[in-house]
Amino acid sequence: MTASASVSRVSELERRYLNGTFAELCRIGSPSGHERACAERVIAELRALGVKVQEDDAGPAVGSDCGNLLAFISSDSPGGSEETAKQGLSLLLCAHLDTVPLQASVEPVLLDGMWENANDGILGADNKAAIAVLLALARHVRREGAPVDVELLFTVGEEVALAGARAFDASLLNSNCGFVFDHASPIGEIVIESPTHFRVEATFHGVAAHAGIRPEDGRSAILAVARALASMQLGRLDKGTTVNVGTISGGTAMNVVAADCTLVLEARALEDQRAEDVVAEIVDRLHEAANIPECDCDVDISVQRTFSGYKLAPSSRPVRLAEEALRACGYQPVHISSGGGSDANALIAQGFATVNLANGTERAHEPGERVSALALEEMLDVALALLDEAAGLVSATAL
Description:
alpha+beta, Aminopeptidase, Alpha-Beta Plaits, 2 domains, 9-stranded mixed beta sheet, elongated
């Protein structure tokens, strides 16, 4: 997957801009639901380049202070109209504006070629790295021109089950296919398989009582949750299946038997039926725990299929286009299956052909998250190569 020697499309000035923009974006906190400040920075940058930007009304529906952003850059007339795109090839590139919750303020530092957070928390490279790349690409094609029309989509709420992309109307797109840069693994990897995802929320209702005087009169909802979890398989169940307990909340005080307790779980599986079977098993375990005599609680359970998995044919045109772009940048393409979801899942579910590409970031969602300056630059090279390969290898009808 290591790039061999190849001619870079990225100038030294563009490298400085790309890395500077990335650091600036990382400093702008944008946890899911609070993407507005980051979005305004993106809007300002694109409008300064003369690029049209539209914001949809997804914000309120997905619990965000901002909607999804869609920008258009004509190949032959900078700032041209959307009608121009319909006359030729158009390619979508996508990144998400939000991050997981911040554990600490973000102060990007470059150490031995790696961007890291000087504080003990995430950097935000997921997905600020891709945002910086798309802004640098916009700057490049506005100056140098592009071989195809370009659409840039910046979504909200990706980290909360792809909320923004699921609310986005893909019929607005002129492009025939798209690419997201949202997998934390070495550049060169192409995600051709991604899981179905379920969210399960359960609230146990017991009876409150004084924990020191009449504990036997109470029925602990927290105990019921504990019994339920003890009976479940958690973590990695098999190569393509995982279950995770995300949050638990309940009780009112140390000396009160807890009357209520809520837990939120997720289940993922590459095989759709496997995901449904695992969720059914989880629901059974929750009901059984509620009915244990020592618990004797009521339980309300909500199950939501948040997004569906996909399997891309290796021979499909978008996958082949990604392969050619990677090879043009000196990479040997590698097809992978991933336990992670991305905006590609949501767009594919709407019938829009999308491929998720690795972006070279490391340790996503963890303190210690990082990405190399070189990976940022090579991501931009790959993005520019996608435009070239789309123009050179694929016709509008073939995509």
